[in-house]
Design goal:
5-stranded parallel beta sheet; 4-stranded mixed beta sheet; 2 domains; Mg_chelatse_chII-like_cat_dom; CHLI-like; alpha/beta; 502 residues; Rossmann fold
Length: 502
């Protein structure tokens, strides 16, 4: 006699169907789990044994075989505990096996029978919805699972409550969907003193989704400007919110089942390792670049990051995804991020001030900036020099423009782009490429002449040329211009990277 229970294996943001087959046959007492289980899955035998004992049941003194099919797909995680336990209850005749066929099951068991939360419940719920199945999950994650439409969710606190539901003696209540995660409070652009050029670059970056690098002395407001960026970005669309929430779910960071609507803002420390930034580890998990998907990845003190770690960002910045290769599997996570970085011009930070600069200037700046590779810098659309804040800026009574006013202009520019790229996978100007970019961002005749001249004098690469077009298109959108003119190209060129210090 064999019981069949549906569950899933997670490969990145992909949920693969797994069938848990439980068989009890005559023979010496044994409990064997096969089908490429990792250590956590193998240890489920003891957790299941303890959970059944907690509700007054014992395993039959026979040979128990659990097969996780397909057998060539690696199985990782503790969410196989509950399907294995339900399969055993089915084969023992305690739960109707036909009833189990209607559900997909995930959950970790405690020795006292409680069902603990596991990563990836939202993905499992979406997968169950696609297959026309209900979902059995931990009670603490019912509000997360219910976001998948057209699905029956059984969110049980413990094994006894789940058993009572299947027996019909105490039906489980239907969980309520979690609330929308509110945007965390952040600084307002009205707090930024002076820095008109940097404020303008930040607005352009927000309007077109462009990458931005700010360079300037300590205390000039670079980190404050970066922290203001989420406040002028538009909220995620419902589809984007689901994408971001799926990443948070598979990483175990979806708090109380709340769907994330604000764009992520991740600011890892410069000591972060490569797996921490791009993902990986023994069990491949999303890194900071994926946790910032459709949001902002802020790297402060950019040259202080390990060079290999920074160069690992080159692929996701170009493709919008990160592929992690392992001997037994290849995992892909989304990584469509807006990179915002800040740096000092040199180690001491006072390169342009003779009174404060160190004795090695300007050689220290050459060595410091050489930590950043040219290909990485070429992927950054906007390069801005942030000057030191003057006393006049600090005491000026003129109020700076608040984030709400800037956000309105950004939203208007984003609305233009949404209409322009409707029907294509492109969301913003920063993603436009090929014929789509040529058709929408080709400048007028004076603009083309200026761009051709600049491409020669600045030695723009093909990638640099494309990024100038994208920025010019965004500047035109902010101005409400249908076409790209010479003035838009000129401003876009002003944000290109200057030649390195000699």
């Amino acid at each position: 006699m064999v019981a069949h229970v549906s569950t899933v294996a997670f490969l990145g943001l992909e949920a693969r169907a797994v069938e848990v087959q439980v068989q009890v046959t005559p023979g010496l007492p044994n409990f064997l789990v096969v089908g490429l289980p990792d250590k956590a899955v193998g240890e489920s035998r003891e957790r299941v044994r303890g959970a059944l004992a907690a509700i007054g049941l014992s395993l039959p003194p026979k040979r128990i075989t659990v097969n996780l099919s397909p057998a060539d797909l690696p199985k990782e995680g503790s969410h196989y505990d509950l399907p294995i336990a339900l399969g055993l209850l089915g084969v023992m005749g305690i739960i109707d096996r036909e009833t189990l066929a209607d559900y997909l099951v995930v959950g970790e068991l405690g020795l006292d029978g409680r069902i603990a939360s596991v990563p990836g419940v939202l993905l499992a719920a979406l997968h169950a919805s696609e297959r026309g199945l209900g979902l059995v999950c931990p009670a603490s994650q019912g509000s997360e699972a219910i976001w998948a439409s057209r699905i029956e969710v059984l969110a049980a606190p413990d094994l006894m409550a789940l058993l009572a539901h299947f027996k019909g003696s105490a039906p489980l209540p239907t969980p309520r969907a979690g609330e929308i995660e509110p945007a965390p409070p952040g600084p307002d652009m009205a707090q930024v003193k002076g820095q008109e050029t940097a404020r303008r670059a930040l607005e352009i970056a927000a309007a077109g989704g462009h990458n931005l690098l700010m360079s300037g002395p300590p205390g000039s407001g670079k980190s404050l400007l970066a922290a203001c960026l989420p406040g002028i970005l538009p909220d995620l669309t419902p589809g984007e919110a689901l994408e971001v929430s799926m990443v948070a779910s598979v990483s175990g960071n979806l708090a109380e089942g709340r769907l994330i609507r604000a764009r992520p803002f991740r600011a890892p420390h410069h000591s972060a390792s490569m797996p921490a930034l791009v993902g990986g580890g023994l069990k491949a998990r999303p890194g900071e670049v994926s946790l910032a998907h459709l949001g902002v990845l802020f790297l402060d003190e950019l040259p202080e990051f390990q060079r290999g770690v920074l160069d690992s960002l080159r692929q996701p910045l170009e493709t919008g995804k990160i592929s992690i290769a392992r001997a037994n599997a290849h995992v892909t996570f989304p990584a469509r991020v807006q990179l915002v970085a800040a740096m000092n011009p040199c180690r001491c930070g006072h390169l342009g001030d003779p009174a404060l600069a160190c004795s090695r200037a300007p050689r220290c700046a050459v060595d410091y900036q050489a930590r950043l590779s040219g290909p990485l810098l070429d992927r950054i659309d906007l390069h801005v020099e942030v000057a030191a804040v003057t006393a006049a800026d600090l005491v000026s009574p003129a109020p700076a423009e608040p984030s709400a006013v800037v956000a309105a202009r950004v939203a208007a520019a984003r609305a233009i782009q949404t209409g322009r790229y409707e029907g294509s996978p492109v969301r913003t100007n920063a993603e436009a490429d090929g014929d789509l970019l040529t058709d929408t961002a080709t400048p007028d005749e004076p603009g083309r002449a200026l761009l051709a001249q600049a491409a020669e004098s600045l030695r723009l690469s093909a990638r640099g040329y494309t990024r100038v077009l994208r920025v010019a298109r965004t500047i035109a959108d902010l101005a409400g211009s249908a076409g790209v003119g010479r003035v838009h190209v000129a401003e876009a060129l002003s944000y290109r990277r200057r030649a390195p210090i000699n």
